[in-house]
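Good morning C.,

I know you're traveling, so I'll keep this short. The sequence:
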Amino acid sequence: MKKIKALLFILCIVFLYGFPLFAQDNIQHYFKTLDIKNGLSQNTIFAILQDRQGFMWFGTKEGLNRYDGQSFRIFKKEESGLGNDFITALFEDRKGKIWIGTDAGVYIYDPREEKFTAFNITSDTGEVITQAVTKIGSDRNNDIWISVDYQGLFKYDMNQQTLSNYLSLKKPGKSLANISHFWFEDQACWLGLYADNLYYTNDDFKTLQPFKDSEGKETFKNEIITARLVGAHNCWYIGSSNGLTEINLTTQKTRRLLEHYVRDLELCSDNELWVGTENGLYICHLNDGTTEHLTDSDGNDPYSLADNAIYSIYQDREAGMWIGSFFGGINYHPYPYTYFEKFYSGRIGDFGKRVREFCESNDGTIWIGTEDCGLFNFNPVSGEIKPFRHPDISHNVHGLCLDGNYLWVGNYLGGLNRIDLRTMQVKHFQKGTTSNAVDISDIMSICKSTTGDLWLGTVRGLIRYNPESNNFTPIPELSNKNIYHILEDSHGNVWVSTYASGIFRYDIKLKKWKNFHYQANDPNSLPYNKVTNCYEDSQKRLWIMTQGGGFCRYIPENDNFLRYGMPHGFPSNTIYRMEEDNMHQLWLTTNNGLVCFNPETNEKRIYTTDDGLLCNQFNYQSSFKDKKDRIYFGCINGFIAFEPDMLMENPFNLPL
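The C-alpha cells, ready to paste straight into the viewer:
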C-alpha cells in the first residue's frame, strides 16, 4: 500500500467575541478557506468525512475530493470507477471502506486497492439503488443503512451480504415515504420524512409513530428533519426546515433554539453546538443560552466564512471544525491549541498592514506606528483601535517613545513630532527649524535613557536632543551610519544597532564608543554587520539580531559573541525582534515564522501561518510585552497578540 501523507493542516487560529481580551471562553473564530482556487473540484460541499487514516473527504456537486492537509486528490467518473460526480453522502464502515452516496446510486471505495466499486446488489424487493441517496449510516450491529429518494430505506447485512428495503413502495400497505434523515437509538429507528414529521419505529417498521412532546404535541409536524445530535443531560438536538429544537428525553419537553432553516449540526464541545443554516453559522453556548452568529463578510475579511449557506459541518479527530458551504467551498477552524489574536485591516477597517512600532502609554493604551497608514491608539480592554490624524505626522511611522506626558513620534521622510498626551497637541521638528540645523527628517528609532537623554536614530547617524536649548547634537562617532535601533542596558550603556556597520556600544563609565563588527576569520565575532535589534533579557544577557546572520548572545567576559542561526535549526537568518515570556523563553520574529526558544536547553518551537499567524514575515522594530505579560508582534499584514501561558501542544499523533 502506498504511504499516506499525514494530515498536517493545523491552523490554530482564534478570535475574540467578548472582553477582556485573551479569555479562553471568548475566542473569536477565524477560518481558513479552501475552494476551487486551492484545488477543490467544486465549491458546493454536501458531505464531509475523515477516514481512519486521517484523510479528509469532501463530496461536491462535481467530484469527490480527498485532502491530505496540503493538496487535493480529485475522483471523477472519467478517471476512476466512481460512476457519478454528484456526491450527496459519505460513510466509513467498520472495515475502513468508504461508502459514497450520489444522486444516482451508491459506490464503495477500497483504500487498500484505491478503487471504486458500484454497489449494485438487488434487494429483497427486486430493486437496485439508482436514485439520490440522502444518508448512509449504520446500526448497533454495524450493518449499513441507506435512505434513497423515491425508493425507501435499505439495510445491507454485512455478514449475509444481503440487501433489504423496509419502506419500499413495492411492499403491501406502503406509501411514498422519502426519508430526509434517520438514526438508531437502542432498539428504535428514528426517521424524518420530507415535509411530513419525525417518526420512530421499534417493531421492525411495521408501524411508524410520530414523536410527541410532554403535552402531546407533534413538534415536527410538516417539517423536514435534516440533522440530529446527542447532547449532554439526556438531550437531543434536532435540525429541521423550521429551526433548531432541543428535546429533553427525560421530561419529553421541547424548546425551539433557532428559527432558521438548519442544514447540519455538530458539537464542538459539550457546551458549544455549531449550527449550519441558510443564514450563516450559529454557535449555541448551551451552558448559558447565548448564541453567536457568524456570516460571510462579502470578501472584506479573509478569515470570515466564505458563504452564508452552510450545508455540512464536521469535527475532525484534532477537534478542528470543517464547514462546507453551497458556494464558498470549505472553511476550516482548528482547535485553538495555539492562541494568536489577529489584528488586520479587514477586521479593523482602515488600519495599516505594515505594523512597525509599539509604545505603551500611561493610561494603559498602546500606540501603534505603521509604515503605510500612520499612527493608531489601541485599547487592549475594549479592543478598539483609533487612528490619530495630524498633518505633521505622515503615514510612515518609524519611531515611538514615551517621555512622561509626551509621545515622541518619528517619521521616515517626515521629521520628528512630539504629542502632548494631555491635550493631544502636536509639536513638529524638522531640518532647518533648529539653531544648529541638524537633519532629523528620517527618524528610524527613538530611545529615552534613564539619565534623561533622548536619543534619535536616523539614516544619517545618531542624534541627541537638548531640551534646554530645544536643539539637537549629532554624535560624530556614528556620523553617516544608518541607525536601526537604540537600547540602554541595565548598566547604563547605550547599544546602537546599524544597518551595515555592526553594533556600537557607548560605555557610560569610560565615556567612549566601541564598534563590534563581523570578522570573517573569527567565529566569535558579530555574525553579520546588518544589525536589526538589541535586546536584554531578565538575566541581563544581551542578544543581538541581524538581517542575514542569525542572532547572537554577547559574552561580556570575553567581549565576544555566541552565534545562533539556521545551522542550529532556526527557520531564517533574519531576526527582527525578541521578547521574553514569564517562563524565560525567548520569542523571535523572523522572515519565516515565529520561534519560541529556550536558551538554557536550546529547544525551540516554530510557529507559522498553519498555527494561526497572520503571515510568516514579520517587521522591523515591531514587538512589545505589556504589564499583563501579553506579547505583541507586528508583521507586514497587521499584528498578533497572545499569552504564551495559553499555548498548548496538539496531543494528536498523526498517522503515517
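Safe travels,
E.
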